[in-house]
């Protein structure tokens, strides 16, 4: 009955997951577990009854609240689970029409042979897979060479190169006092660059267009896997530190943005886990889906970071006018997503100013209709105040129109050749000035309105 309920919820939320009973027999002892089949990716895993009962409660709450968005994906597709390719679904017509290809094919054994030495787990060391067969062939060819490859030396070399690259980056940015937001942007760039290499390498290996058994290709893949892991860990740490700065701020918007940023960073790290698990278990569909989710979550995280940075007036060193060389180290999609978030806060600020002006205007209209002015002087003051509020609203609405026009123009110029590196700090400076002056105008209008209200009362 619970299984049927879970399947009905999964179908309603379009999560492509089927739940069924799985019995594990060890001698005379039978253990009951729950099998999950992800029909979209062609993968399967097992849950304990306790975990299934706990997740079913979460499913009910999500279904009742109607929150079947991407935030509930991990409820059905948990990165902490050990997913495997669903052998029974390899011949499924549905997967065939989706172009499903697992890595366990002759054309993909090149990828498996080299990456297994990094990704294999003790529980799978005894299994003979195309990956291990390819690794055996490679070792047999290498044994005839005068120099026998040492995996530990290779790992040492890759770690050394990663540290040297980090030191070079530090030396290039030593003249800047980088803050936590700068480091978050660098983390996102390093992560996106690494997962791009992993996905492209897996795709080329699947299509049989490259030899990963060559040392340079193996080193490139291994370095990217290490870089993705390190960048994910660093991103989580920096997001946690920056979030702690905002706990004392009395702002609902800042708290909401901080919570979104924390949740998105965790989801990003979870997708990295899924990507590496798909690479380890030779599941092409997991790699492709995880990469797509990672690309989206990284850019969304950059957007939230931009909005939160300008909302909290956080200083960002790489957005200064004299940091062009440092800013070049971050890819354009992350920088643009960051500025998109900045523009969102500009819109919020302008809309807040328009709302305040509308409220003042409505209050003045009400007072003039009730004829609260005791004499011509008071009436004249209210009339002039009404004109001032009206003009402030007109100015803010015009700013809103210009902001929409600028956003439309910038969205049509996504090429790096069209957007020089100086474009990003200039855009950020303009946005900072816009938010500051809009806030000052709104506060001044409110103060003038409150002061003039005392005149009709004889104060």
Low-confidence segments, ≥5 residues, pLDDT <50? 94-148
Helix segment count?
Answer: 15
Please give the largest β-sheet.
4 strands, antiparallel
Sketch the topology as an H/E string, one letter per element: HEEEHHEHHHHHHHHHHHH
Number of strands: 4
Span of the ends, CA to CA: 73 Å
- Quick check: average pLDDT? 77
From the structure provided, what is the oligomeric state, counting identical versus distinct chains?
Answer: single chain
Which sequence of strands runs across the widest sheet? 1-2-3-4
The helix fraction, in percent, is 55-70%
- What portion of residues belong to β-strands? 5-15%
Gyration radius (Cα, Å) is: 29 Å
Task: Give the class from helix and strand content and strand pairing.
Answer: alpha+beta
Shape: globular
Keywords for this entry:
four-stranded antiparallel β-sheet; 459 residues; alpha+beta; 67% helix
Give a description of the structure.
There is one protein chain. The relative contact order is 0.08. This protein starts with a helix and ends in a 7-residue tail after the last helix. A four-stranded antiparallel sheet has the order 1-2-3-4. Residues 94-148 have low confidence and may be disordered. 67% of the residues lie in helices and 6% in strands. A hairpin with a 2-residue loop joins β1 (17-26) and β2. α10 packs antiparallel against α11 and α11 packs across α13. The protein is of the alpha+beta class and 459 residues long. The chain has 15 helices and four strands.
């Amino acid at each position: 009955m619970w299984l049927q309920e879970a399947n009905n919820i999964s179908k309603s939320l379009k999560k492509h997951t089927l739940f069924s009973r799985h019995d594990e027999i060890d001698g005379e002892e039978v253990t009951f577990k729950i099998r999950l089949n992800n029909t979209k990716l062609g993968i399967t895993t097992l849950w304990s009854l306790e975990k299934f009962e706990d997740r079913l409660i979460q499913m009910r709450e999500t279904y009742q609240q109607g929150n079947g968005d991407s935030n509930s994906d991990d409820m059905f597709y948990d990165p902490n689970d050990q997913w495997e390719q669903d052998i029974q679904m390899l011949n499924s017509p549905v997967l065939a029409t989706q172009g499903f290809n697992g890595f366990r094919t002759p054309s993909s054994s090149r990828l498996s042979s080299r990456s297994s030495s990094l990704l294999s787990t003790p529980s799978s060391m005894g299994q003979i897979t195309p990956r291990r067969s390819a690794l055996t062939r490679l070792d047999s060819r290498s044994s005839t060479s005068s120099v026998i490859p040492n995996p530990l030396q290779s790992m040492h070399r890759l770690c050394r190169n990663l540290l040297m690259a980090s030191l070079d980056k530090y030396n290039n940015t030593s003249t800047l006092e980088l803050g936590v937001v700068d480091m978050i942007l660098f983390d996102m760039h390093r992560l996106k660059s690494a997962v791009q290499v992993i996905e492209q390498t897996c795709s080329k290996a699947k299509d049989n267009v490259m030899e990963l058994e060559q040392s340079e290709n193996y080193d490139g893949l291994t370095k990217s896997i290490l870089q993705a892991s390190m960048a994910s860990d660093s991103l989580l740490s920096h997001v946690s530190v920056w979030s702690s700065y905002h706990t004392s701020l009395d702002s609902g918007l800042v708290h909401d943005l901080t919570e979104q940023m924390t949740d998105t960073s965790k989801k990003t790290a979870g997708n990295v886990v899924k990507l590496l698990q798909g690479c380890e278990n030779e599941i092409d569909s997991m790699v492709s889906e995880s990469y797509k989710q990672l690309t989206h979550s990284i850019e969304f995280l950059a957007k939230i970071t931009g909005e939160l940075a300008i909302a909290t007036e956080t200083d960002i060193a790489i957005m200064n006018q004299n940091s062009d060389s440092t800013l070049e180290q971050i890819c354009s999609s992350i920088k643009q997503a960051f500025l998109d978030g900045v523009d969102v806060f500009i819109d919020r600020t302008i809309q807040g100013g328009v709302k305040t002006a509308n409220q003042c205007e409505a209050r003045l209209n009400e007072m003039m209709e009730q004829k609260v002015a005791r004499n011509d002087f008071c009436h004249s003051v209210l009339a002039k105040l009404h004109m001032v509020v009206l003009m402030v609203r007109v100015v803010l609405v015009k700013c809103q129109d210009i902001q929409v026009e600028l956003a439309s123009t910038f969205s049509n110029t996504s090429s790096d050749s069209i957007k020089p590196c100086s474009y990003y700090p200039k855009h950020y400076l303009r946005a900072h000035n816009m938010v500051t002056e809009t806030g000052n105008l709104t506060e001044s209008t409110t103060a003038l309105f409150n002061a003039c209200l005392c005149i009709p009362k004889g104060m």
